[in-house]
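In response to reviewer comment 3 from the previous cycle, which asked for concrete evidence that the modeling workflow produces usable outputs, we include below a single protein chain processed end to end. The sequence was submitted unchanged, and the resulting structure tokens are shown without manual editing.
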Amino acid sequence: MASPTRWITGTAGALALAVFACGISGAQTLDPQTLLPGWWGWVPMADDPEDVAGTCENQPMRIWFSEDGERYNSAWVDEDGSEHVSTSRILRRLPSTETTAGFLIQYDGEERLDDQGNPVAWYLFMTGPTRFVWVREDWVPNGGTTRPLERCDGSIVS
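The workflow returned the following structure tokens.
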């Protein structure tokens, strides 16, 4: 799978996180529960066009929610054909705006640890109706994000 640890930093990353954290309200806000179900892939890296794992063209990720909307689920197939499913309770919903929305999750059985030895938690941060980034909770102070993921068909699934 494509490396999700490429950070977007600097002014753009800090601004995106600042807007996200402030919760500026707009006329029509993004709704992750409506916009996220479907297929998503990493945006290909311009500096490494050979790294296509996890893109829409090669092993995209499927996202869906539990019927009660309290659990986030994702699935993808590795190069060897084995399917992986990850689930998480939604720990916190973040304010939604016309251009941003998201929530905080911690995957069931998460084994990755932050610098303090705690299992990592992830913000799924929508930057529009067909694009999002992941932000590890301990990356927030530095404005770091993964590279974006985009809806594979470009349309909104209802």
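The chain has a mean pLDDT of 83. We consider this sufficient to address the reviewer's concern, and the full set will be provided in the supplementary archive.
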